[in-house]
Every structure is written in structure tokens, then in C-alpha cells.
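Bench log, entry 3. Co-assembly request; chain sequences pasted below exactly as received.
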Amino acid sequence: MPAAANVNASAAQLLDAHGLTKVYGNLVALDHADFRVMPGEVRALIGSNGAGKSTLIKVLTGAIMPTSGSVTLDGAELPLGRPEEMIRHGIGCIYQHSNMAPALSVLDNIFLGRQPTRRFGLVDVKAQRREAEELLKRYCIDLDLDATVGELPTVKQKEVEIVKALALDAKVLLMDEPTGWLAASDVRRLHDTIRLLKSRGVGIVYISHMLDEIFTVCDTMTIMRDGRVIAEADVADMTRAKVIELMVGDRLARESSAAAGEARHPRGNGEIRLSVKGLSRRGMFRDVSFDLYGGEILCITGLIGSKRTELMHAIFGSEPRDAGTVEIDGKPVDFRAPGDAMACGVGFVPEDRHRDGLMLGMTVTENLVMTTLDRFRRLFLLDRRGIEAASRRSIDDLSVKPADGRKLVRQLSGGNQQKVLVGKWLRLGPKVIILDEPTVGVDVGAKAEIYSILRAERDRGAAVLVVSSDLEEVMTVADRIGIMVSGRLRSIHDTTDMSMAQVVAEIGAE
Amino acid sequence: MSALSPNIATRLAPHALTIAIAAFVVVFSVIEPAFLTPDNLVGIFRQVAMVGIMATCMTFVIMTGGIDLSVGPVLALSGVVSFFAMEAGYPLPLVLAAGLAAGVLVGLLNGAVIAFLGLPPIIVTLAMLSIVRGSALLLGGPDLHGIRDQPGFTFIGTGSIAGIPFSIYLFVAVSLLVVFLQKMTPIGICVAAIGENERAAFLSGHRTRITKMSLYAISAFGAALAGIIQSSQVHTASATYGEFGTELDVIASVVLGGTSLMGGNGSVARTVLGVMFLGIMNNGMNILNVSIDIQLIAKGAIIALALALAERG
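Structure output for the full assembly:
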């Protein structure tokens, strides 16, 4: 590890990106970023969403052309903006979502899409096999070349991708959230492979939200924020809290203004609406217990990957749980499907409004009544007039723009789509409403509107449970804050007792 | 003028099918005045009644992004089952119930496998096509079974009321019923929601699996009813009726009506237009004495052209 920390030995640098800048219109996505990787170094690239990590990676894979800056590999300057050149010179990338041909064999996948110039049009199967076997031996990777990729476990598929990159003589491997879909034991296995690659002199860029993994497998780290590289350090010199502080940055300073002036209602009206006891799901979350009161907003925060979304689905009955009980108003319930939860007055605004939330090709009105269609049934007829009236009320209450129920949801802006999504759940009149990242991808104005909707729900006596990774949001709306770390609900605090710095420290703690 | 034409095109696009039908009617009646006689027009409706019933009943399935390839054999099975029920001496209502129930059972089976096991509709109903054809043959053998001395049953396919064949009344009744289901009951919104975004519909509390299963039963019901009309019309039941190609006419009608095979929005009323379009085309070419080989080629080309235009529109 100390060898890798030798940052100023410029001669030994494997990858050197200098002054990378990418401007989109008024937005500076990447601002004079410098990035270096040494041979045999595992370097973490860290930053919250929108920090510029993806832009940097896209420049390195050639997917986008930077506005200015240069990249050298082994001292040779690379032509930018051309993916095939980056691969040819030895920059490989393992993407978060596998992009292999699942029906083909491991061997075929390793050589898929390779330059045909060496093969004179014909595939030399024997030579391919020999080459692949040599690679596997050199990097001590155990793979059956004839297995079908789609039938392999995910961790093996990652290894195939790694071998595929190595077969193209990759000197630098970019790994984007490589453990996103892996179980804990598989993560260890992948980390062993990474250590082997490292010992063979491959430079690795490890992009992950999982601080645990970074502290386990990485030597050095580069932290980005707002398009800039704001810190480079040896992992050994850093603490989790320090890393998160750097990631969050000046948002700490804004804390006082955001939190000031809001009356907090921890434990609301004192009546427990939702009680979760010992909820567990293997490989996801373990032994989660908490009480949610009417008239309060409880925010559950944590790093991406702390399994908050899965926990919410388990409470709502849309995903399974292995153990534990859920009570509504003191009565045990067993939700097998969302409809069961809704019958008990529980609503759930999911995170991904396009995938899980809305029917984009249907009208605003149809979307707004989606959760309450049964209420507009007169015998077996649909009460069109009642639906129109209800839709108009919702559109007014939420100030959806344009205020026209006949518009297709696809035609609305992100913020207005989100208001329709929240609105369709408010129509249920829920006594418990769960919202998963309710302001993702909406502008500042719509954010403020959604916050006032949440407060209005609380003030009417609803129990509001919000999952949010946005600490500013948490400090703004929460009456109490729950902190989730690696699938465990670590603690719950009254917001008045916490500073953002304390929350940050807890999120990063293990 | 060229600046105006795209504007006109976008305005006319939703009515393209109506315009095409009108154009065919004009062209056929100019070339051959016999086309416009009342007898011929009634004949067109009579010819499309069976495909029409199947197409309106399959529209919901296609709106959810599914498909039902098994309608041909279901048609045969329902006829054969009805025949044996008549042979056994059951009264007409029970005979019809048996034929329809056989079809609905197949539909429920299709739907259960698709909705609850999550298998792709095209595979499930393709397998069912084979299974049901085999079952019908097992039951009825390869022979034609003559239906004699069954005035009630025969009336369904051959009788008329006020000069209009009874099968047309059935077609109109089924169409109105399915249009009613789509427009006036919550089913229409549920079906569209599943086609647009099944996961979001599930997370909004909809019982998506039960709904999907029922839709395949509706589709099979249509095929079973068509089977009863067919057997009644030709006074025979056979396990070989509803031969290969039946399902293609049905699916083409639905898609010509503007329902996307990818699921989402669609309209039963427009499916009826699609049915009429195909029926008028067939009839017109018959009247003009176009030979069957050319008819098949022309029909395929027109369907492909119409779909290509719909995709762009």
C-alpha cells in the first residue's frame, strides 16, 4: 500500500488525466479535474450524485469528448472522445450493469467484439482458447470457458467481464459500482480478484458508494464535489466521517438556515400508527425496529445501498421479508400485496417515478385516480364526473402545471410529474404515508412545494415516513431522523438534538 | 402548400382508418355497383362476425402487451364440445354453456400461467394452440360431425331477425359489451394501466395478476362463441376448424385498429373498424373476381403498409 501512496513520483504514473473540463451549456460538469492512477494501485473515486464522477469516467472511456484537458497512459497521450481508441490503448471498464451476451459461452464473451484484423475474418477457436487459458492462469482466475454466461452467478459474470477487459490488454480497469448486485461473500471474492490484479500491476479505479468496501480494498482515494476534485488521500489517513464531510462540503454551512424556523414535532400526537418489530430479509436488512407516530415526519437516511428502499417495500408488502412483524394502530398486519397495505391506510410513493410510479402515456387524471379507482365505482360503472372533480381538486391543491387533467403525464416537467405521483397517493387519504426519495430529480421550486405538502400531511395527523439521501432535505423536513447503515437501523434521534455534522458522522460509522 | 400538408396529415392521422374504409367503399362501388347492394353489405357483416367477435375480445389482452395465439383451436374445441353435449341430449342453454366453458377454461389456464408464473404470452399461447388442437382431435377425431335436427343451435349461425342474420346481432352485442367494459367500467383504466406500466399498477394496489388472467378468459370466450357460430353455420363440428391463420386475421384487426402490440393505449371501438376494413377488403376483392392467390398477397401487403403508416403516425 505505501508504494501506491507515492503520488509525486510522476515517472511511474500509469494513467494521468490533466485539467479535464466538460461544459454543457451553462453547466460545468467537470472543472479542471486532475486524476492519476499508479500501476498496482486501487484508487477509489468518491462523490455524491452529480459530483462529476460519471462525467470523468465517460471521458476516460471515450464516451464523451472533454471541453479541454488531456489524458496520458504510460506517458503516451491518448486521442479523446473515441471509445475504441481508449480500449485499444488499455483502458477497460466494468459497468454497473453487465453488458455481456448471456446466451453465449464465457469464451465467446471474452472475445466478443474484438478487432477482427488479427483473425483474417475467421475465428481461430484454438488460439482463442489458448489465449484465454493463459490469461486465467496468469491472473489466477477460476472460470469454466464453456459455461453459458447467463447461467453463472453474478460474481462469476463480473469475473468474465474482468477477463474480457484483460484480454484486451487493459492496463487500467475502471469499475463502476462493481458490487452493486453482489452478496457479501461474493464481494469478498471480487476483492480477492482485485488484489490479484493489483499484484500484477493493473491500475484500478473503484467507484462505489459503499464506504466499507473502499476502506477494505482501496489504497488511495479521490473525492469529487460539484465537478471538482477536492481531495486526494491515502485511505489509511482517512476516516469515514472525514470522507462524508468532504463529499457533503459546504452544505454543512447551509444547515443552520435550512433548519431554522421550523417547529419540530417528534413523536407527533403521541399515537403510534406504524410499529415495525425485528424486520429482516436475508442479504438486505436485519432486525429493523421502530415506531412511527401520527403527526410526525420520520426521515430514514443513510448511504446509497444501505437497503432503505427494500425495507420500505417489505413494510408495504410489495417485496418479501423473512422475519419480523408490522403493526398498524397496534394491530398486527400481514401485507401480501400493496392492495392489503392500502386497505389499512398505508400509502407508498416509490423512488423511481418512471419505472414504479406513473403511467407516462396516460392522462394526469387517470394517474391521479389510480390508487382510488374503487371509490369511483357506482355499482359496476365508473363515475366519470366524480373522477374529473377529484382530479381538478388534486391539481388545484398541488398546483400541478399545466392545470389540465387531460394532459399526458409524459408531457409534464419532472417536478410536476412528481407532484402527480405524490398526489395520487394523497387521494387515498393515508394515515401512514411512505415516501422514497420524494424530491429526486426535481427543481428547487418543486422541492419546496413537496416539503410543504409533507408538512400539511403531518399537520393533518398522518404519519409520514421519508427515505432520503439528501441531508439538507432531512435536516429541513424531519421531526426525527433514523440512520441506516448497511441494512441496520443504527439509531433514531430527535432532529433538534442533532447537527448535520453528527448525522454525517453516524452515517459513516460502522 | 407544402407547409400546410404536414399539418393536415397530423390532423387526419387519427382518422386514417375511417378514411381508408371510405376510400375502399368508393373505389369498389365505382368499379362494381353490386358492392353497394344491401345484400352485399349484410354479407360483409356476416363474414366478419366471427373474426370481429374474437378481435374485440382479444383487444384487452393485446393492450396489456400480451397476445393470444390459441384462438383457432379454441374455436374448434368449443364446436366439438357443443356437438357432444347435443349428442348427449342436453338442452340448448347447457350445450352453449358447455362450449363456452371449455373455451373460458383454456383462457383461464393461459392467463394463470402467464400472470402467475410470468411466462411470455407468445410462448404460452403457442403451446396452448398445440395442446388444445390435440385435445380437440382426441375428443372428436379428424371427422366432421354432422349436426341434425337442432333448430335452436342452427338458428345461431343461419337464422335471421328482421332480415339480418343472427350472427351479426351477436357481433354487435359482443362489441357493444366490450366497448362498454372499456369506456364505462374501471376495467378500461386497469387494462391500460397494466399495459403502460405493470409494475406501477401493481404498486398502486391493482390486482394485476387476477386482471390479466381474466383478460385471457375473455379472449378465449370470444373464440368459443365464434366456434359455436361456425359449427352452427356449416351444420358440422370438427376438430380441424379455426385452421392456421385465424389468429392472424384476429390480431391484424386489433392492430389495424391502432392498439400497439407493445401494450398501452388501445380502443375496442377502433378494433371494430379494423375488422370492417379487413372485411371490406376481402369482399371487394371477391366481387372484383381477384383470384385467391393475389388476394392473399394483396391482403398481406395492405396490412404491412397500414402498420408501417401507424408506426410513423
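The first strand of chain B starts at residue 145 and ends at 146. Chain B is about 75% helix and 5% strand.
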